Amino acid sequence: MLAGSLQIEVREWFASLIPRRFPHRRIALTAAEHGRRLLSELQVAGSPERPTCAQRAGATRRVMAAFRAFAAWATALPRKNGTVNFGHHEGMGAAGVALIWMNQVSEELLYALDWRRELLCEGTSQLPSLGGCFMGIARMQTTWPWLVDAVAAASAGRVRAAVPAPVLFAPQPSQVLLHILGSGNLMVEVGVDKGQTSEELLEALPNLTILGVDPYLGRYNGQESRERLDGMGGEEAFRQAAQRYSRFQGRARLWRQRSAAAAAGWTGPAPDLVFIDGEHDFESCAEDLRLWAPLLTTGGVLAGHDYRAGEQGVVRAVHQNLPDGATLHLAPHGVWWWYVP
């Protein structure tokens, strides 16, 4: 069952992303657990093709009870002011994001069907048509814990940040990058791995050219990768990336070298976007930011991945290199960016 798989994702995946020492971990996981319980009730409610009056009323009461529990918890959270403008909401912290999450769930339920008619058994039941509502709330399960975490990290660092409304429900990092790129035609990706992100962008944007930079040393975060198990960073990753890049002759080039060497030897036109996803320790990440930022075109975008509490090297490097007066933009999946003056 999908609700069961979401429970595993929430408890294992997001629990592993946010270390226990961070207080917002409980907020993110509790909100996601409320969402999972609601999804379980929605799944049961939408199962009968021709529900009886008793089934309609019972399912409605259980769905409403699950939502009321979510709402009661979210509204009772002590909300301390944060530093993040979240969509149209200003000064949000982790608890404020959880409250907005609950309100988004409320809207999905409100527009799904007339719950009063189900409770009173009026007309034909619309419970079997709950699939759209279910999927909308399920998508939140995979994006909003990221947002709680990112907002908490930015607020802890007291940096000016914003989460733009168009990226709130982006299902993949590539979808965020599509929003950021706009009309940009040249992108550098530092840390290509197997090339999935580059491939998705090149398929979506026929005028885009990507230069991928990755030494493929078989290491991750300074440690030897388990290449035989996951192929991360070594020969197998290089083979897959090269194969993907070969599909886009003239629009994709893969440089197998270190980031610093690639930046030092750059002689091409100024990139519109540089996406940093290399080593995640502070020194390496900070060096990447310092070396690539000056190469961007005026108004270009310096962006990256893995901005989250569990990657303090990335968070510190981003905060310390954020230009004076610039706004740090945040999105699901640990994506961050700012615009170069």
UniProtKB/TrEMBL annotation:
InterPro entries: SAM-dependent_MTases_sf (IPR029063). This is Class I SAM-dependent methyltransferase. It comes from Effrenium voratum. The lineage of its organism: Eukaryota, Sar, Alveolata, Dinophyceae, Suessiales.
